[in-house]
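Exercise 3.2. Students should predict the tertiary structure of the chain below and write it as structure tokens, then compare their answer with the key that follows.

Predict this chain's 3D structure.
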Amino acid sequence: MIKLYNKSILAALALLSSSSLYGENIVDSIMKLRTDVEGLYTKIDENKENYKSQMKSIAMQVADTEAQIGRKETTLKLTNLELEKTNTQLVKLGSSTQDFQPVLTDAITKLEALIKAGIPFKVQERLASLTKIKTDLKEGAITQEKALSLVWASYDDALRITKEIGLFKQNIELNGEPKMAQVAKLGSIALYFATPDEQVGYVVKEGNGYTYKLEEDGDKVQKIVALFDALQKQIRTGYFSIPNALVLSEVK
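Answer key:
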């Protein structure tokens, strides 16, 4: 009987020891879970603050972009009004037999100013075309009526370019070196470029001129590449996330 009693005591002690160990494990697990939960709450709070900061930054960028677009649209409207006035004057002169070479010269000078102040898209070629009209008119190689028709067409081309979206090729100057590049033109709002050696960037206005800025940020580079791919596939509508490259031009 004594031996059986001792065995019972030992079994009870073993059971108590096991229960105590089990209880300690539960407490440890609960404490660990509590620590994990507190850590998650801390991360959630941090993510909330980061999200708020990002949304605030995006809202400021959107407001700035909308303001720039508004100013650009105002400039474009004023330019269109000037072009319409010039076109009307040219139409009136078209039916007259008087000498209107001074008016043609003035119209060409104004258009040259618009081209130089506007987005740097095939500037040299467009200016060379106007120079040829002036030269041919001065030398008598073309009539005033023919010059009128050519100048009118040049004004129409200038208006078309302000709305045109697409891919083109032209010479650019990057870091002081001339390069042939593919350009993605978004009307008269922005101009992106991609060189054969896989460098990409966009045009920025500096003072009275423009500079081709090389983009080196990996995320922004991918966005520009995606824009070129979309235009290559004839996709000209939809939502595109691209670096802010709005250019503003003013003619004084």
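Discussion points: The CA atoms of residues 122 and 147 lie 21 Å apart. The radius of gyration is 35 Å.
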